[in-house]
Each structure stands twice: as structure tokens, then as C-alpha cells.
Amino acid sequence: MATERTLSIIKPDATRRNLTGKINAKFEDAGLRIVAQKRIHLTKAQAGEFYKVHAARPFYDELTTFMASEPVVVQVLEGESAIQKNRDVMGATNPADAAPGTIRAEFAESVGENSVHGSDAPETAKEEISFFFSGLELVG
Ligand code: RTP
Ligand code: MG
Question: Which parts of the sequence bind ATP (predicted)?
Fold first, then answer.
């Protein structure tokens, strides 16, 4: 197993309900270390750029409007197999399908407003980390 880094976003439905600490505790309990973190308010254009892979999907406009609706917390998580570990802690996209104890099972409001984002592969993790963080913000 290798130490990896992944990009996580605590989405507006969760920041609005003041759940950042509870969600961060789930990451830390799973062995993930928060090595960078900041609170930002995306424009709709920035949200659209971040989620451009979904541009043709019917939920794209709803998703990017939601992601720009209120501040988010963007963070870099580090640990052994961090990408998969983070997705395991997040749970399934639709909270109705998410395993008990996962972030989405406990906190998500709907398939769209599902509290967290996590990178899905090493290449996307690298791209998504550099989308939000400069080298200076990332301690080695
Ligand atoms: P994410 O990218 O946010 O970590 O979530 P994911 O991999 O589990 O899901 P993905 O298929 O990449 O979808 C990205 C986000 O789009 C919203 N979505 N809405 N209304 C819908 O049917 C629908 N489907 C997806 C969710 O916010 C999902 O996390
Ligand atoms: Mg995804």
C-alpha cells in the first residue's frame, strides 16, 4: 500500500448545517490526515470548470448552482490508499444506498446534496488538488 493524497470537498449542504467538524472526525477516525484545508465560495463558473466532466449530464446545472450556492471547505486528505479510503468513508453517491456509518448515510440530504466530494482516481486527485491548492499551501 502506498501513501496517497486525495481532494475532498465538504459541500454547501454540510457547511450550512455546521457539520465540518463532525465530517472531519470521520476522516480522522478512518486514518486520513487533513494536510491542507480552506473555506472558499466558488463562483458558478468555477464550479462548472471543476465538474466539467459532468457537463453533458442532466444534473450539471443543478449541481454547479448548488456548489456555488454557499461556501465549501476544500481539503487534501493523506493516508494509506487515501483515495479509496476516503470514498469508503463517504459512502454511495445516493444516501439511500450508503452503508451505515458513512458520511453520506449520516449527513447527506439527497443524491444531489450529498455533503462531500472525493477524487475517484490518482490522476483526478492530482488534477483536483492543483485546481484548489498551490505548491506553497501543501506541506511535504
Ligand atoms: P463526487 O464526484 O461529488 O465525489 O460524487 P460521486 O463520485 O459519488 O458522484 P458522481 O457520479 O461523480 O456525481 C457528481 C455529483 O453530482 C451530483 N449528482 N446528482 N441528481 C442526480 O441524479 C445526481 N447525480 C449525481 C452529486 O452531488 C454527485 O456527488
Ligand atoms: Mg465523482
Answer: 11, 59, 87, 93, 104, 114
Is the Cβ atom of 106 under 6 angstroms away from ligand 1?
no
CATH at residue 122: 3.30.70.141
Rounded to 10 degrees, the C-alpha dihedral 93/63/70/94 comes to: -20
What tens digit of pLDDT does each residue of 73-120 get? 999 999 999 999 999 999 999 999 999 999 999 999 999 999 999 999
Which structural domain, as residue segments, surrounds residue 69? 3-137
Q: Which residues are catalytic?
A: 117
Question: Global pTM?
Answer: 0.97
Q: What CA–CA distance (Å, rounded) separates 51 from 7?
A: 13
Residue 92 Cβ contacting ligand 1 at under 6 Å:
no
What is the interface pTM, i.e. ipTM, of the complex?
0.93
22 is in an annotated binding site: no
